[in-house]
Structures are given as C-alpha cells and as structure tokens.
Amino acid sequence: MLQVDQLRKRYDRTDAKAFAVQEVSFNVKLGEFFTLLGPSGCGKTTTLRSIAGLEMPDEGEIRIGEDTVFSSVRGIAVPVNRRNIAMVFQSYAIWPHMTVGQNVAFPLEAMGVPTAEAARRIERALEMVGLAAFRDRPAPMLSGGQQQRVALARAFVKEARVLLLDEPLSNLDAKLREQMRVELRDLQRRVGTTAIYVTHDQEEAMSLSDRVAVMNEGRIVELAPPRALYLRPRTRFAAQFVGQADLLDCTRVGSEGNAWIVDTPLGRLRTADCSDAEAGASKTSLLIRPEHIELRASPENGLNEVAGVIERLVFSGRIVEYIIRAGDRLVRVQGTSREIFEAGRQVVMSLPPEHCVVVTD
Ligand SMILES: Nc1ncnc2c1ncn2[C@@H]1O[C@H](COP(=O)(O)OP(=O)(O)OP(=O)(O)O)[C@@H](O)[C@H]1O
Ligand SMILES: [Mg+2]
C-alpha cells in the first residue's frame, strides 16, 4: 500500500552530514497499523511529512498504492491534496470557530463532495468516534479527548487510502490516552485503513501496532512486530528503547545446538537460539529483562543460575522491584507479590536461556 525507498532529507544545507532522515526504507501493507518509534529528533515527523507531501525529501521514492507520489530520480512530486492521504497532527488543530459537524465537514467541502454524500459521511464519521450527539456543539466546548476524536473523525471522513498520525495522543492525560489508544485501534481495524503512526512512547507503539520501525539518528535501526521487537531484539538500541533492559558484555566461548555459550560478568550462560544472529558482529551484549529473571531460595539444576544477595527492594503492589548484588554487579529483577524475598537474603537468580538474547551494537 505504501512504499518508502531510500528516503533522505537534510534541512541544514551548510552541513553535509546533518541528515534528518537517511536511507529510510519500508513497506506498509494494506490495512496495516505501522509505527515509527524513536527518541526526539530521530526523524519521525520528517518521514511522515515527506509521505504526506508537506516536506520535500532530497532523495528517494515514495509510492502510495500504484502511484509514485515522489521520486527524486524521476522528478516526481505530487502535491499534498492529490496524494489521497489524511493526517492527524500532534496539536490536533480543530477549528474553534466551527461546530463539531462543520469541523468534520471541512475536508469534504475542500474536496467538493456533493452535499448529500457529505452528510452521510459526516454522520458515519461522527458515529464512529462516538460524537454523533455533539454534532452542533461549538468545538471548543469539548473535553481534550473529545476534541481529539473530532480530529480523528475529520481524518477518517476523507476515506483516504492512508492515514498518517503524528503523536495524536500526546496532548491527553495518561488515563484518557490509554482509553483513546484502545479506541483508535478498534476504529482503524473496523474501517480497515492503512495507518502510519508516529510516537516516542514505546508502550503506545507496542499496544497499537502490527509492526514497529525503531528509528535513531535518522535511520531505521530495527523493524519487527511488537513481540519480536521486545522479546528478540537484534540491536542494543532497540533492546533498550522498547523496555527495561540489563545488558551484559558477553563473549562467545562455544555453542550448544543453535544456542551460544557465553562468558558474562555474571558467569557462563547459555543463550536463546542464535541461529539468525549476525555472524561476525562487532560487539555483542546479552539482554535479559527484569521480569524474565526468576528468583529461587536455592539452586535447582545449575543451568543459568546465578547466586546473589537482595540489596534492596521496592514493593509497589502488583510488582516487586529488586536490586540484587551478584559479585560486583547489580542486577534488576522484577518479581510478583506471590513470594517476596527480603533485603539481605541470599537468593538464586534463574536466567531462562530462551530469554537470554544476544544483541549487537
Ligand atoms: N524545519 C526544520 N528545519 C531545520 N531542521 C529541522 C526542521 N525540522 C526538523 N529538523 C531537524 O531534523 C531532525 C529530525 O526532526 P523530526 O521533527 O523529524 O524529529 P522527530 O523524530 O519527529 O522528533 P520529536 O519526537 O521531537 O517530534 C531534528 O534534528 C530536527 O532538529
Ligand atoms: Mg515529531
């Protein structure tokens, strides 16, 4: 549905290396929810605005469906209004001097949609976001979440092929954000729109997306479905960006089937399946997430078991966060309230091999 190929964009003409986006390539399938995730300034908005036609890339090619809407080589740059896309911005920019209905009607008027059809589409869009009853209300007399829904309805009403969303939930408070997250996903599924979503919030990316592209310094460093990204990241950057991560320097000393045997500051450990690890990677680290470490009172089989002492713990109800000293290393472990180990106690940390993931720099 959408193909982005070798996109490059530099704002600062005076600095040859100052690329906002470089060599960014990805494909998005019809009906897919695709997310660009990354820290501030990594080039997410630039990529999205390039797709929309609001920004002119220096190099690359962008195709929407069968149409090439941008190509530096072929000199194609289709204007915004002919790209058949809808966009929701971070500041949702609804028009304060209009009613809810007029806000949603606006793009259709601009497109010259006949009145009867427009009325039908407006009704359906407002219905979809649960605002049918608010149609004649002045737009400013709505809560933040409702205003956000007006912005979504205004985007959906265009029935565009691709929906672009740039941090559309970031202006909402935490609770509303979570609720809108679920609604947005439902809505996108029901309508079947292809969505490109931009966020720096990893939880939002995980819970909404079919696939996530992790960006850093203008490049995509990793692209995968949420679970694979979290459980089997390939890069150090993605491992740390999508969740808590303790990374251990590791050196491969052997293998067992597809698993590696590695030496780490916590001793010799067996890793998860490494058959698709990059051969000859420069530097490797071992990722183990705090919630994957199991605490035991005593050793069971010696496999991937590391002795330690509880240095401190924070009990917060559902979870218990431990800091555990093993030799001169401190390890974070997330436990549950099912069994609580007190500070000062000797424990054994069991690091399940399937959760010991080798990542590269
Ligand atoms: N109009 C502009 N002029 C010059 N530099 C720009 C412009 N817009 C963005 N940049 C620079 O390009 C880089 C990428 O910016 P971009 O807005 O794409 O980042 P982002 O990932 O959307 O960040 P954020 O999460 O903060 O919105 C940044 O270094 C930014 O300073
Ligand atoms: Mg941005």
TL;DR of this structure?
The protein has 361 residues and is an alpha+beta fold. It contains 8 helices and 22 strands.
Please render the helix and strand layout as text:
Elements lengths: L1 E9 L8 E10 L4 E5 L6 H9 L6 E6 L2 E5 L4 E2 L7 E4 L11 H12 L3 H14 L15 H13 L5 E5 L7 H18 L2 E6 L2 H7 L2 E6 L2 E6 L1 H6 L4 H6 L4 E4 L1 E6 L2 E6 L2 E7 L10 E5 L5 E3 L8 E11 L3 E8 L2 E8 L9 E5 L6 E4 L1
Parallel strand pairs: 3-9, 3-10, 7-8, 8-9
Antiparallel strand pairs: 1-2, 1-4, 4-5, 5-6, 10-11, 12-16, 13-14, 14-15, 16-22, 17-21, 18-19, 18-21, 19-20
Adenosine-5'-triphosphate binds next to helix 1.
Q: Can you tell me about this structure?
A:
The protein folds into two domains: 2-231, 3-Layer(aba) Sandwich (Rossmann fold); 244-360, OB fold (Dihydrolipoamide Acetyltransferase, E2P) (Beta Barrel). Helix content is 24%, strand content 36%. It is of the alpha+beta class and 361 residues long. The protein has eight helices and 22 strands. The protein is globular and about 75 Å long. Helix 5 (174-191) links the parallel strand 8 (162-166) and strand 9. It has helices spanning 44-52, 100-111, 115-128, 144-156, 174-191, 202-208, 226-231, 236-241, and strands at residues 2-10, 19-28, 33-37, 59-64, 67-71, 76-77, 85-88, 162-166, 194-199, 211-216, 219-224, 246-249, 251-256, 259-264, 267-273, 284-288, 294-296, 305-315, 319-326, 329-336, 346-350, 357-360. Strands 7-8-9-3-10-11 form a six-stranded mixed beta sheet, sandwiched between helices. Adenosine-5'-triphosphate (ATP) binds next to helix 1. Adenosine-5'-triphosphate (ATP) binds at residues 11, 20, 38, 40-46, 200.
